[in-house]
Write a structure and sequence with these properties.
- It is a single chain.
- The protein has 129 residues and is mainly alpha-helical.
- 78% of the residues lie in helices and 0% in strands.
- It is built from six helices and no strands.
- The longest helix is centred in the last third of the chain and has 21 residues, at 86-106.
- The chain is globular, with a radius of gyration of 16 Å.
- The N and C termini lie far apart (58 Å).
- The mean pLDDT is 86.
């Protein structure tokens, strides 16, 4: 039903905007994904990661602006690139890279400010030195 879809979307959005919310949502959605072998399991894993990335890239209605949303969520997305556990890292990095690409296509200036500049800052410091 529509009311249930709205309520789930609202709860998901509220969780994403909390500290470490992106990580918690990914753990909940992706838990158990990739545990089996084979091409079919890998395809399901890819699709699931892509869907989660699209959700992360979309600004929820509860946010006052896309800028506010990017300010809260982008640092969490960049943190996904530093996960140490190899199995978890593979999925989280897949979600992070797809989310970054989707955000860069949708809002290039905000993605540059909140994702690309922080990601490239160490390289720029080395090149300036």
């Amino acid at each position: 039903p529509a009311w249930l879809r709205r309520l789930c979307g609202q709860l998901l959005s509220e969780r994403l905007l909390r500290p470490r919310g992106v990580h918690a949502v990914l753990r909940g959605v992706l838990e158990g994904a990739g545990g089996s072998d084979g091409a079919e399991a890998a395809a399901v894993d890819w699709r699931k990661c892509d869907v989660v990335a699209k959700i992360l890239a979309a600004c929820p209605q509860q946010c006052l602006s896309v800028e506010d949303y990017y300010t809260l969520v982008c640092p969490q997305i960049l943190d996904l690139l530093h996960i140490q556990d190899k199995q978890t890292a593979r999925q989280f990095q897949r979600v992070a890279t797809t989310t970054i690409l989707t955000m860069a296509k949708g809002h290039p200036q905000l993605a540059e400010k909140h994702l690309l500049q922080p990601m490239l800052a160490p390289l720029l410091r080395c090149s300036d030195a």
